[in-house]
Amino acid sequence: MSMNETKPIDRFAALAVRTGLSLGVLYSARISDFHLLLAAASRAFAAGRAYSERDVNDILRRWLAQEGSMLAVDHVELRRWLVDCHVLLRDDYGRAYALGQPVAEIAEVAVALSGADLAQIAVDARARDAKAREERKRKWNATARDDAPGASA
Q: What are the sequence ranges of the domains in the chain?
């Protein structure tokens, strides 16, 4: 299995709690995560359907606001990456888009993600992360009070 033996859905959940991820940096430094996030974005589109550029932009804006909120890109940059990697095909006039035949690594991950509710996986991962952060903060605050000058021993 690719991605250092981590299941794609588990890795997506781990990435969902992050912020400020750059596709360009992932492409250079962590290509498996790059492939995973493009495969995840591809799930927002239906096979066999043609999309206008406006439709694609609306879909990608929504995806970036929800499942893809870990990315620090706008819908235009994401659309370009999807087209460059053949996840989306664009006609010669840039007016019609459809799902394409992405590179094998992206296609393989897309299959592994099929059937998964990525939006719910992201919501659940972010809720678990927020709860864990709150618990760490609570413990740290309790320790800080106990260690404060004048605290009873």
A: 3-147
